[in-house]
Amino acid sequence: MTILDGKKVSDDIKNEIAAEVQKMKDNGEKVPHLAAVIVGDDGASLTYVGSKVKACERVGFQSTMVRLPNTTSQFELLDKIEELNTNDDIDGFIIQLPLPPQIDTQKVLMAVDPSKDVDGFHPENFGKMALDMSTFIPATPFGILELLERYNVDTKGKHTVVIGRSHIVGRPMSILMSRKGWPGNSTVTLTHSNTKNIAQITTQADIVISALGVPNFLKAEMVRDDAVVIDVGITRVPDETNPKGYAIVGDVDFENVSKKASFITPVPGGVGPMTIAMLLKNTLLAREQRKGN
Ligand code: GUN
């Protein structure tokens, strides 16, 4: 069994990006600038955005965190997006999700200039992704592809079962794994909350990608021997033994599933750090595309 070490691979990617940024600095060029908008004070979202900003500092990017109150109206948020769209200094930006209920998420995501949409959530970019065109790929699926690639995991002709159809992970992942090329060329089954007999499907999988958000959902008896198991779950569960008062728990019963798997991602230290590294990669790409514009 091989651990797909997202911590190590993301460190490698950040070092590669830092070297690119150093070259830009040496040439007297502008370095990439990422902005992150967060609405409200959800603890988990604040932690994620904080990690994204910290990662920018580490690789030498400029970063801006825009914090808006929980009571922000859709109009106010659209106004802020327009400001970021037209600010020439910003190469890419993200709107951290989820948004408060008074805000229409799809309207907001459609307001982001596709050339600055480093999350790849705008329908133009999502459509390009589905049509095999070059574009920003959402960071978590992009990170999973990168892990599979760097560990040389064979995906061609394999049966990949994706659990969860979210717009951020499950849906794009199912599209990407069926694309021509590598990683891809898989036969994909996308399962979700209405799927019947899910264990019957997951036991047929060569590759299982779980993005459900239910701690320890995937048990050993639900996977076949030598399966590749990717755990996207990052649920916070109360834990008094942890100084933070909570522990991050994945969708996969790691202790038992790891005994059967050929490759498996741990939580934490698997997909999570990869998401941040790929957001940086998309931002670097956005900067390169804007050069001379
Ligand atoms: N919320 C959970 N994951 C993500 C992500 O990848 N991007 C944004 N913007 N919000 C998220």
Order of helices and strands: EHEHEHEHHHEHEHEEEEHEH
What top-tier CATH class of the largest domain fits best?
Alpha Beta
* Structural class category: alpha/beta
Q: How are the strands ordered across the major sheet?
A: 1-11-8-7-5-6
CATH architectural grouping of the largest domain: 3-Layer(aba) Sandwich
Low-pLDDT runs of 5+ residues are none
Distance N to C terminus:
48 Å
Number of helices: 10
| Residue fraction in strands | 15-25%
> Mind describing the biggest β-sheet?
6 strands, parallel
Arithmetic mean pLDDT = 97
Distinct small-molecule ligands in the complex:
guanine
Number of E-type strands: 11
Please outline the helices and strands:
Blueprint: E1 2-3, H1 6-26, E2 33-39, H2 43-59, E3 62-68, H3 74-86, E4 92-95, H4 105-111, H5 123-130, H6 139-150, E5 159-163, H7 170-178, E6 187-191, H8 198-202, E7 207-210, E8 228-231, E9 235-238, E10 246-249, H9 254-257, E11 263-264, H10 271-290
Parallel strand pairs: 1-11, 2-3, 2-4, 5-6, 5-7, 7-8, 8-11
Antiparallel strand pairs: 9-10
Summarize the structure.
The protein is α/β, with parallel strands linked by helices and 293 residues long.
Describe the protein in words.
The chain contains 10 helices and 11 strands. It has helices at residues 6-26, 43-59, 74-86, 105-111, 123-130, 139-150, 170-178, 198-202, 254-257, 271-290; strands at residues 2-3, 33-39, 62-68, 92-95, 159-163, 187-191, 207-210, 228-231, 235-238, 246-249, 263-264. The longest helix is centred in the N-terminal third of the chain and has 21 residues, at 6-26. It is globular and about 50 Å long. The N and C termini lie far apart (48 Å). The model has no long low-confidence stretch (mean pLDDT 97). Guanine is lined by residues 94-97, 119, 139-140, 168, 275. Guanine (GUN) is lined by residues 94-97, 119, 139-140, 168, 275.
